[in-house]
């Protein structure tokens, strides 16, 4: 449960984070484990044929793609739990 709380906090932070033009890779910014979680979420929901779901990309690029992919799943009966965090964040 503590791990899920950390993930929720991390994802919420990433959704509101606006990085500068000189962005670090997500792996450099968050570390390998946390960036890989975002990459996996991104791959899972992205409708793109070549999504930016790579830990070498900036975290905000990855989270933007997660938000975009989750938007397509908004009305699904059982969307991924992290998409629910996306909807919650957008309504604030």
Automatic annotation (TrEMBL):
Species this protein is from: Methylophilus rhizosphaerae
Keywords assigned by UniProt, alphabetized: Signal
Signal peptide per UniProt: 1-21
Protein name: Cysteine rich repeat-containing protein
């Amino acid at each position: 449960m503590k791990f899920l709380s950390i993930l929720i906090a991390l994802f919420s932070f990433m959704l509101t984070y606006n990085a500068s033009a000189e962005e670090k890779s997500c792996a450099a910014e968050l570390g390998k484990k946390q960036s890989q979680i975002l990459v996996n979420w991104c791959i899972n929901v992205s409708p793109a044929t070549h999504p930016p779901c790579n830990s070498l990309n900036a975290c905000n690029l990855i989270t933007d793609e997660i938000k975009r992919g989750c938007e397509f799943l908004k009305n699904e009966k059982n969307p991924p739990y992290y998409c629910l965090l996306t909807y919650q964040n957008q309504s604030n």
